[in-house]
Structure formats: C-alpha cells, structure tokens
C-alpha cells in the first residue's frame, strides 16, 4: 500500500513539474526585469554556411549595440529592457532546424523567434510558431507560397522579393541616354532565378523593350560558346543574367573572351564571390543589392557598426539585410506593442510597417513583405549604388565603357 502511495506521489510530482516546465515560457512574459530573449538558428555549417558563417558574431554584436543604449523601450515598464539571443547551428538541415525551434520553445523558453533563413527551412519550421503561439520573424524565406498557408504567427523579411527585384534597375534605364531598345535574358535553370526572369521578362516587354533572346543554362554548364554566339548574333542593348553567382562565373569570363558588346550587362546576384572569381571581367556590370553602407536611412548607423565590428561585408554576404531586418522588426514590434507580450506583439506585426536602412518593411495580411533592392554598378573594382539618385553613392556609367 505504501509503495502504491509513493508511486502515486512521484507521478503527481512529475506531472506538476512537467506543467511548470511547459508554462515557464509564459512566466517571464510581461516581465520588466528579465532580458527579452530571441531564439534563432543560423546555418553555420552545411550547404548554406558560406552565406551565413559570420552571422553568429553579427547577432551577438547586434545585441551588444542595442544594449549599449539600454535595450528596447517597453512602455508598460517605463524603461528599456536589454535583449539577448539563444543561437543554435541548424547545419543547413530542415529537420535539425525543426528540432531546435521546438527546443527553444519548450526548454529555452524564448520570448520570440527570429529566423530561420532559406525557403527549405521556411516550409517545416514556421508551423511550430503557430503551435506554440510564438511570433516568428523569419529572415531570408523568400518563396511567396510559404506565406499562403494561413499561419498566424509567421512573418518574413527577405530582401528583395521577386516583384521588386529589378524594379529600380528598370526605373533607371528609363532615364538613360541612349535609350536601350532590346534585351537578351540568360537564365540559370533554378526555380528562384526562373521566377525572377519570368517576372521581369513581362516587365521588360511592358516597358517597351524588345526581347531578342531568352536562354536557359544548367548548374553544370561550363562551355557557353553556343549561347554566347546567340547573344552576339542578336546584338542586344542589355544582357540580363538571372543567376546565382557561382554558376555564372564561366559565362561572364567567356562573354569577355568572346567580346560580347552591349550597353549594359546586368547580373541579378552581383556579389563579392563573383567579383573575386572573374576579377576585372566584372567591371562595369550592374546588379542589385538590398543595401550598402553609405546609403542613409533609419538604423543605418546601428547596422554599419554591427557589420564593421563583426567583419561582415554586404557585398560578400548579400542576404545579411534579410537577417538583420528580422532583428530590427522584432525590436520595433515590441516597442509598438509596449509590452513583452506575444499576442500584443503579434497584433503589432499584423499588416505593420517597420523601419530599416533600406526603407520601410511593410507586411501584407500573410506576413509577406514588400522589400526592394538598390541598383549597383562595379566601377574601378568598387561597388557604387547608382539608383535611385537620392541615395546614390556614385554616378551610373552608361553605356558601360568596358562592354563597348
């Protein structure tokens, strides 16, 4: 009998303990004394690591910089509250990310989620935010369909989104002289790049440009002789390359070797990696960047300090603003809510508008943003923002001298 009573008591204690663990996450909400805790994963290893390998340090520095001024202003507390991050390496593996966000919700008891990145993570991870009713401001999850699932606790800050990817570039070429009349699209056979090209071919036509070619190449392509022969025969004013940086390295090199001529060669992912691999062949090319130091806007000083201290180059790590954007939105949402409360922060995020150095981040009812990018050009081995003119750090060279 005594043994049965002991077992019953142990069972009761274990049940109560489990209940305490599951509600711990709520215990510090609305607290004016504990730090605000953001939980995130970063792809420090695995296939995405080259895109994010310095982001742990960047994230730690971001918290340090925000906390130098006291932290986040919380109206209900009538004071600023410091922030901190719980960070794990998701190893670029979706299943690993899922288990880590589950841990952060149930063991680490984080207040809010920031991240993850990449559309492969954006499928399985966000439903956990709804499960635990924890607002999640993901970073570089750019696939629009992932926001069409009716999730209530999921937002994203990818820069740029497809409908605004080359918007400023096409605005810019309306103003140049001589005016381009023809354009040739060269597309990396990848869902993201095909999506970008598909959207902007329609926009180019609507703008009055004649499409004189639209060719696709595979990830494994090394010999572009036949494709370049088509470009040379078409003699386009603009060659528009929709590609990730590494697959297009031999394309750019062979375009130079075979003396392609155009008013401009535009690359949708003009990056430090591409520039290092093709060296001077990148000179004069235009492209897009979400933001670049020197462009003034809200939080530009904070972001520049964070990048400098953590050794992150926007040209090398082009998805960085998407990641920092999730942090900026998180702290602003708490300030708007005026309390460290998940439901109040959720209300602040819904169809909200938030500040970033690249301009406003505006969410639609799905949590999808309306983020654009700046048009850049390589001049003398350096990156210059050339459009829009009110934030430009350099003047567009048109036609590009090195492609004449």
Summarize the structure.
By secondary structure, this protein is of the alpha/beta class. Helices cover 38% and strands 18% of the residues.
Could you explain how this protein is built, in words?
The protein is α/β, with parallel strands linked by helices and 404 residues long. It has two domains: 31-160 and 298-311 and 319-362, Rossmann fold, CATH 3.40.50; 164-289 and 374-403, Rossmann fold (3-Layer(aba) Sandwich). The chain is 38% helix and 18% strand. It has helices at residues 2-27, 49-52, 55-68, 94-106, 119-122, 126-132, 167-173, 191-206, 225-234, 249-257, 272-278, 300-310, 320-337, 342-349, and strands at 36-42, 72-74, 79-81, 83-89, 112-114, 136-138, 154-156, 182-188, 210-217, 238-242, 264-267, 286-289, 353-354, 361-362, 374-379, 382-387. The chain has a seven-stranded mixed sheet, with helices on both faces. The protein has a five-stranded parallel sheet with strand order 4-1-5-6-7, with helices on both faces. The protein has a two-stranded antiparallel sheet with strand order 2-3. It is elongated and about 70 Å long. The model is unreliable at 1-27 (pLDDT under 50).
């Amino acid at each position: 009998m005594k043994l049965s009573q002991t077992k019953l008591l142990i069972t009761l204690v274990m049940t109560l303990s489990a209940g305490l663990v599951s509600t711990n996450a709520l215990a510090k909400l609305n607290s004016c004394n504990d730090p605000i805790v953001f939980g995130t994963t970063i792809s420090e290893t695995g296939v995405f690591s080259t895109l994010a390998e310095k982001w742990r340090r960047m994230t730690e520095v971001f918290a340090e910089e925000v906390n130098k001024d006291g932290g986040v202003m919380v109206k209900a507390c009538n004071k600023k509250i410091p922030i901190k991050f719980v960070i794990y390496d998701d190893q670029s593996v979706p299943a690993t990310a899922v288990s880590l966000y589950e841990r952060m919700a149930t063991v680490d008891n984080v207040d809010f989620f920031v991240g993850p990145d990449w559309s492969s993570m954006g499928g399985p991870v966000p439903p956990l935010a709804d499960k635990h009713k924890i607002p999640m401001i993901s970073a570089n999850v750019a696939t629009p369909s992932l926001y069409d699932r009716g999730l209530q606790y999921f937002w994203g800050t990818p820069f740029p989104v497809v409908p605004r990817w080359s918007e400023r570039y096409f605005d810019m070429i309306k103003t140049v002289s001589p005016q381009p009349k023809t354009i040739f699209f060269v597309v990396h056979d990848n869902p993201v790049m095909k999506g970008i090209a598909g959207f902007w071919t329609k926009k180019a036509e609507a703008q009055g440009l004649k499409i004189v070619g639209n060719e696709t190449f595979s990830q494994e392509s090394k010999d572009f002789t036949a494709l370049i022969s088509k470009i040379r025969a078409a003699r386009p004013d603009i060659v528009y390359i929709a590609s990730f940086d590494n697959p297009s390295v031999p394309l750019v090199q062979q375009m130079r070797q075979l003396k392609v001529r155009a008013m401009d060669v535009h690359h949708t992912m003009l990056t430090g990696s591409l520039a290092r691999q093709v060296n001077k062949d990148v000179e004069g090319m235009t492209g897009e960047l979400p933001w670049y130091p020197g462009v003034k806007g809200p939080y530009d000083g904070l972001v520049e300090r964070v990048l400098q201290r953590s050794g992150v180059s926007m040209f090398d790590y082009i998805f960085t603003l998407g990641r920092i954007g999730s942090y900026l939105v998180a702290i602003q949402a708490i300030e708007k809510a005026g309390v460290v409360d998940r439901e109040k922060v959720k209300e602040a995020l819904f169809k909200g508008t938030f500040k970033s150095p690249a301009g406003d981040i505006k969410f639609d009812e799905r949590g999808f943003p309306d983020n654009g990018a700046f048009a850049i050009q390589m001049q003398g081995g350096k990156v210059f923002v050339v459009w829009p003119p009110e934030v430009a750090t350099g003047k567009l060279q048109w036609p590009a001298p090195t492609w004449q």
